[in-house]
């Protein structure tokens, strides 16, 4: 490769998956410097997002984490990560090739399955008043703040009281945000009243356990109506730039329907299930935070191969944009043909058991050199060792110099 111009190598590398680029780092020092540079990491991610190449499906089972190449469903890889313990590691968010991992509200990490690099978040206590009951309900969110070019994790925790399965109103809660750029947490002080309702009424109702949905620099949670308590749906948004909450407007006609939230083609979308659970209408907000831009995209009839149609979520369009990949009941992936209105199961090798799925792009985010904090610690350690060695050399040289003078 020594005779190939670097701009051509760069163009070739931009088209390769991250797993291949990790191996290419050993080709030469210029290749190593290129792949590890922040400019190349950003360009590679942008190229992947624009082209739609190297898209993977991340499968999550009770004790299973696997990646599947969307263009080659027989190419399945088990994912091992350093946070994994004997218990169940929770996967709570997905963004630009990264996933959020949690063993507890204080044991969190951001992990890149393509490069196997992990950034452990500094342990942050849950600061509840003395005498309050044990923490119970936790909401997470992982997103990219494009304004500040920063990855952030949102953690919302409320105490619980009474019986283990009892929702209790009025118990304390806190919201903290982690910044990857600063490698630190901060507490969110300004909170709208609807967030308290999010804990009180809705924690156990959604399939996703309340993971934030990322779109247009904000994380979103839907608070579905609850007959007898709350008569209308509400969407909460958290702006990753300002670290503030707000309510997002949507069509009033959907306020009393069975509603869930997702993202399709980069746009926020709503899934409206009719009361007989015989079909799901998918709505999309084409211009963010503009209520008039909501429109119904398509209707998905209940597939004949599905006994119940409790939950449906669109994941992405096919490259020809004539089909949409759907996740149904957190257990099955199906291609929905927009013209014929028919569904076809996406079969994945050696994955017959129940699993939920998320889309994952191949990226170099977090780099290839490991946890940035650990990298910094190694640099500081090497600097200290180099300083000590230099001091020893200076002492030796001084000793030799004095000894030589004495001889003379």
TrEMBL record:
<dbReference type="InterPro" id="IPR017451">
    <property type="entry name" value="F-box-assoc_interact_dom"/>
</dbReference>
<protein>
    <submittedName>
        <fullName>F-box protein CPR30-like</fullName>
    </submittedName>
</protein>
<feature type="domain" description="F-box">
    <location>
        <begin position="1"/>
        <end position="44"/>
    </location>
</feature>
<dbReference type="InterPro" id="IPR006527">
    <property type="entry name" value="F-box-assoc_dom_typ1"/>
</dbReference>
<dbReference type="InterPro" id="IPR036047">
    <property type="entry name" value="F-box-like_dom_sf"/>
</dbReference>
<dbReference type="InterPro" id="IPR050796">
    <property type="entry name" value="SCF_F-box_component"/>
</dbReference>
<dbReference type="Pfam" id="PF00646">
    <property type="entry name" value="F-box"/>
</dbReference>
<dbReference type="InterPro" id="IPR001810">
    <property type="entry name" value="F-box_dom"/>
</dbReference>
<dbReference type="Pfam" id="PF07734">
    <property type="entry name" value="FBA_1"/>
</dbReference>
